[in-house]
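Entry:
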Amino acid sequence: MPALYAGKRISKPLLGGHTYNAMLDGRLVWPVAKDAVVSIEVTDDKGKALPKSLAVSGTLKLGAKATYADGHVGDLLTTKGVTFTSRDTSTGTVSGNTLTWRHGGTILVTATIDGFTSAAASIASAYAPESITVTDGSGATVTALSLRAGESLKLQVRVLPASADQTFTAITGDGTVAVVGDVKPTGLTVSPESVTLSVDETATLDVSVLPAYAP
């Protein structure tokens, strides 16, 4: 490709039969094949493929490999000789070769080597939970409950936004009053505690499961 200056083509500078080069925006104006970057692969700092997603508050070390016009692939670069850039700093930021989560969405990262910038690598950025809603079977929002001993109610919990991780742990303020989830028996009582019977006699025993609201 010819080099242009002020719209005019510049010939290769020759001095004593040798071609001398020049740099323009960090790139050689007349690169030879072994110095001409034609593509860049963005990887992690170990040279492995980028993960598909970045967790909330997560970080990732980046690396990059350049392929040159003569077909050879350069060394893995992580800090020296390469510049990483986030094209959307609202979802992720880059400092050196460290990518840091900022917000849910899509992170687009590029690498620049010898003035050549790669295509953007895409990484899904996880959404952080922003609110939680609790509803009953009818879909009505639940803020408080009144239950009798032994009663139960199925609740539906939704983490917003819907794209955020829906994993949650439900607890009650006082586990002696009510529990969330399947109630597990903690003990048994039998009354009377001991019985002495003669031949052909019978007795009735009362068995209670603890706690009283357990099945």
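Residues 77 and 93 are 19 Å apart (CA to CA).
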